[in-house]
Amino acid sequence: MANSEFEYVRKFEDWDALAPSNWIVVRIDGRGFSKFSKRQNFSKPNDRRAIDLMNAAAVEVVKQFTDIVVAYGQSDEYSFVLHEDCQLFERRAAKLATSISTAFSVEYCMQWDKYFPGQILERPFPTFDGRCVLYPKKKILRDYLSWRQADCHVNNLYNTTFWNMVKGNPVTDTPAMTPTEAELALKGTFSKDKHEILFQKFKLNYDKEDEIWKKGSVVYRKFEDKQSVKEPTSENQPPQSRNERGTEQGKKKPLSRTQMEKERKRKQKARVVVEHIDIIKDNFWQENPWILE
Ligand code: ATP
Ligand code: ATP
Ligand code: MG
Ligand code: MG
Ligand code: MG
Ligand code: MG
Ligand code: MG
């Protein structure tokens, strides 16, 4: 229907391309998961099957979108970081957010059976909304990721204490509280108070809780350090650094089309890993410098 009299309506569409040279985070979040987790009998505070399913979906999304350099997830949310040079969909915000959130939603539903065998997934099926946020500097992107990981820690400490109080503990003669009572009792408490409640009343050393709950999950492509690789193959080698590629008037030299294609194929072959590690301190970023290269 090209050049029809109706075509002018196209002009009503926004051109929503995101500003260049900014890191793009697509954050997706499960719709109504407080209700959904109850309906599906997730164990509280933390259901291992549910988080494994979130991570499995995220791994597939990272594999499908080679512009994603790292992803961080906790609870019913995931943040996918796209490289500042990303040109996918001409950086159009709605295309990026919807393509990633729908890919994630589909993976979550299609892999449900593997993580919840025999438990039927009924309508309304779980879906995830998505939004794009821009971060103009690596430092601010790092702060964003730190913010999510700190949030994971704070929420998990609260939820662990809350659910222990609601369940009670017969061994230590700690009676079960109603959710309202537990909420009231925790009002105004600090982190150290919650550690103390867990230890005294529930004989639980919070520091020994699984890292997956305290730290959340980091998904990224694993490349080996050039020096440590005995038999270098194109797959396990990290990408060329900016310096190796050379610079043009202080700016990064753009990759040629063939180089870009090679880069994409190499990324597709790379191993995608899920780790429950600290991303607030510098260690992770120093060990994997090519992630934000
Ligand atoms: P919205 O649609 O606004 O996001 P929501 O109900 O999904 O509403 P969130 O703040 O996203 O609100 O909360 C997510 C909920 O999912 C939390 O209540 C949390 O308890 C639950 N949840 C997520 N993952 C797990 C898990 N692995 N185990 C148990 N519960 C979980
Ligand atoms: P993009 O990701 O940019 O949307 P695309 O390949 O999906 O790329 P569209 O312009 O959306 O491009 O084109 C949709 C394609 O799907 C067309 O090529 C059309 O032939 C095919 N298609 C859609 N519905 C049908 C159908 N019912 N039967 C046969 N082909 C179909
Ligand atoms: Mg920049
Ligand atoms: Mg949610
Ligand atoms: Mg959430
Ligand atoms: Mg199409
Ligand atoms: Mg179409």
UniProtKB/TrEMBL annotation:
It catalyses: a 5'-end ribonucleotide-tRNA(His) + GTP + ATP + H2O = a 5'-end phospho-guanosine-ribonucleotide-tRNA(His) + AMP + 2 diphosphate + H(+). This is tRNA(His) guanylyltransferase. Pfam families: Thg1, Thg1C. It comes from Aureobasidium namibiae CBS 147.97. One of its GO terms (biological process) is tRNA modification. It is an enzyme of class 2 (transferase). Residues 225-270 are annotated as: Disordered. PANTHER family: TRNA(HIS) GUANYLYLTRANSFERASE-RELATED. Its cofactor is Mg(2+). GTP binds at residues 75-76.
